[in-house]
Amino acid sequence: MKDLEEIIEELKKFRAKRIFIQFADGLRYKIQEIVKKIEEHGFECVISLEPLYGACDVRDLESERLDCDVILHIGHSNFGVPSRIPVVYWDYFYEVDALYALKKEIDKLNQFKKIGLITSLQFVPAMEKVKDYLQKIGKEVYVHKSLKYPGQILGCDVRAAKKIEKKVDCFLYVGAGKFHSLGVTIAVKKPVLSLDVEKKQVYSLEKEKNVWLKKKAWYDVKLKDARRIGIIVCWKKGQNRIDEAEKLKKELENKGKEVYILAFDNVSKDKTEGLKLDGLINLACPRLDDELIF
User: pTM of the entire structure?
Assistant: First the structure.
């Protein structure tokens, strides 16, 4: 991970004066402290408080309107999304004690010998400590590198789990919250446990998976019979699939459906209230299916 001094040097290379700050939600409690340290080096900072769903969400137009020279994306690695102005990515790892919860609830892993580890970007160092501990107590640990760091997954990319599924008895997600671990749970057949460093618990998301699958099956049946359908698209830089939406619209209209393309920045089901629609098809972030189903 780059430290603050490296980030400052990178910002200076662009001769930046005003910086547009986008940050992962877990950094909300630290963002003012981070910004003050950046401003000590002579930069002006503008903090974006709009929801940020990952490195696919680059707010370059908004940055330009506020006369910013560079975007500083804190808490995400480069997703390859094009931008009208330079973007500096700062991985930024969280300092957490993952071993306390693991040792406290290690009995929940007793039945598993071969464990696949996965994590989200901010918890990569914590996962490495978990790996070392599990190996010391005799577990076989598997970690696959699909993204920048071994074991790293995104909400929309769980290849690090899929690639080793046949080798493991279970997966252990190291991180916080249920978003990433639920994504893996839905994608694989092996058990998935979450080592939640905030709740200091190890728990399964099998119940959530079963609820998700049942609602998804019900929703698919309902959509098949729907006459009026909305296709969701998003204008975020890394989520724009308008061409696919136009193609799908024509296909559905040829089957006698009445179809509308609905454009969003931040997608939520309540924004469709008042529209006469029988069903929605998501062509924005694939994990927004959770929002539509639940």
Answer: 0.87
